[in-house]
Every structure is written in structure tokens, then in C-alpha cells.
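Page 42, continued from yesterday. The earlier attempt failed because a stray header line got pasted into the input along with the sequence. Redoing it now with the clean sequence only.
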Amino acid sequence: MNNEFIGYGVNGSPADCVKLAVNEIMREKPDIVISGLNMGANVGIHILYSGTVAAAVEATVMGFSSIAVSFEITEHLMTSTGRQT
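This time it went through. C-alpha cells are written below.
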């Protein structure tokens, strides 16, 4: 166990997490905020409902560089992994 690591659990949106981290938890301001990793593409109309994208937007509004990271995986890839039972 690493006694130096401190983790936080937040009951809020991803954007709330960015605000809390930057304004209350972090001693130094971040160089960049990376939001995600989100399973599922955030493209088209879905971008309006994405918590992953909202967190990156919130960071940008707060004056920080940011990026939202998502990926799309097909059913074929989900069922053809290297698992054996």
C-alpha cells in the first residue's frame, strides 16, 4: 500500500470534479486537464450530453488547457478478446 497516495470520491458531475479539484484540492494549478477515459464516442449531438466533454469545457472556461478522451469499441472487439474460459 502506498501511504503517500490520497484519493477523493466526489458525488457530482465530471465538471463539478474539475471545479473542486482546481479550486479546493490541488495545491498547484494544473498545466492541462485531461477528462476521460470515456467508453463511447462523443460525436455529433452526443457531445451536448457528454460529462467527459463537459469537464474539459469547464476546465477551458476556467482558463486551463484541456482535452476530452473517448473511444468507441465495436461488439466484435468486445467479444473477440483473448480470454479463455
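Notes: DSSP finds three helices and two strands in the chain.
Reminder to self: strip header lines before submitting.
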